[in-house]
Each structure stands twice: as C-alpha cells, then as structure tokens.
Amino acid sequence: FIADQEIRSIYTVNQYLNMIATKKYLVQNDLDFTSTNKYYYTFYGTLDFQGHKVITDNDDGYCRVMHSLNNGTIENVVVDAYMNKNTATITDSCFVFENSSGTIRNVQFNLKESTAVGNNYFGLLTHSNYGTVENFTVHLEVPFYGAYAIGTVARTNNYAIRNGYVYGEAIETSLWNSAASVSDTHIGGVVGYNDSGTIENVFILSKV
C-alpha cells in the first residue's frame, strides 16, 4: 500500500479515540465504552468493525461513541446499548450523534437495558441524519422510553434511510405528559421527524 491506502488496525478503545480522522481502519476486537466518558469527535475515513461489538451506556450522561461522521463510512458493526444509568431526561444518540453526509451501513443495534424516563431529541443510531443509513436492524430487547422528538433510527432524517427493520418491545411514550409544553411530539417508529429525507424499504414490528 501507499501511505494514503494504508489500512490500520484497532484493538482498544484508546486506539479508537486516537484515530487519524481521514484514515482507513479495521477493528479487531469488541470495544467496550462503558468505563469511559470520552467519545471520538469528527471522522472522515473508513471504519470497518468486521462484525465486532460496540458496547456503550449513558453512565456519564452521554451514550454516543462518535460525535460526527463527515463524508466517512462506518460499517459491519453490532451495537449493544445500555440506557440504564440516567434518572433524568437525556438528549443524545447511542452511536453517532450526527451523520453529516457519511454512510452507516450493515449495523445490528440492540437496546439491552433502559430506564423509564422521558428522553427527548434522541435517536438510537444517530441523532441527526444528513447522510445514509442502510442495511440495519434495531432490536428493542426492552422498551425505548421517550417523551418527544425520538426515533429508533434517527431523531431527524434529512437524506436517506433504507433497507432495515425494527422489532421487539415498544417505543414507550406514556411519559409524553412531561412534554406538555411541546406542541408537536415527533415520535416515530423509525424517525421522530422526516425533514427533507427519504425512507425506503424499512419495516417496523414494534408498537409505537
């Protein structure tokens, strides 16, 4: 390989947090973020998890493991998310906070635990999608709780979500009264609000 084509390996969370933003990486182990309060900020490269897991929780108030994917690609990953540490409402994502013109594909997302609080402005895979999310499953092993502006894939969609399905427990909205001052709840099985995007070949088997 020439330097620009070099593919690097990631074995630890610390190596992940110190990635060069424009490079290509192969993840060689499961990465457990439950003991850190850090996340990667903006990534422009290619990150192939090769079927390995990301394990994350919201112990520090954040569930995300990356803030922004900008023209990059994340693929072939299993995400185990534990939203069980917050006693108050949180606004976040359990994977990439903002997909800004990037591609997230071949994802199996598992919501393993959750707390009955009125989360808002929350998307499990990404908070705000301005890129492409494709070839995914979202398994709600427990209910996904929220008061307003939530979706299992994204809080808001501005480009493309396609080829996936959502199944398992309900999107639990019984806490919506905590958002009584909000005129539009924006709660959806796939996205909370489809702004200027498209959703194709996505099926939901969970109750909303």
User: What is the tally of helical segments?
Assistant: 1
Q: Bin the helical content.
A: under 10%
Q: How many beta-strand elements?
A: 21
Overall pLDDT confidence: 89
Shape: globular
What can be said about the biggest beta sheet? 10 strands, parallel
Structural class by secondary-structure content: mainly beta
Measure the end-to-end span.
Answer: 49 Å
Which series of helices and strands comes N to C? EHEEEEEEEEEEEEEEEEEEEE
List segments where confidence is low: pLDDT < 50 over at least 5 consecutive residues.
none
Rg (CA only): 16 Å
Q: DSSP strand (E) fraction?
A: over 45%
Oligomer description: single chain
Structure explained in plain terms:
- 2% of the residues lie in helices and 51% in strands.
- Strand 1 (7-10), helix 1 and strand 2 form a beta-alpha-beta unit.
- The chain is mostly beta strands and 208 residues long.
- It has 1 helix and 21 strands.
- The protein has one helix spanning 13-17; strands at residues 7-10, 24-27, 31-32, 40-43, 46-48, 53-57, 66-70, 73-83, 96-100, 103-114, 120-123, 126-129, 132-140, 144-145, 148-151, 154-157, 160-168, 171-172, 187-188, 191-194, 198-204.
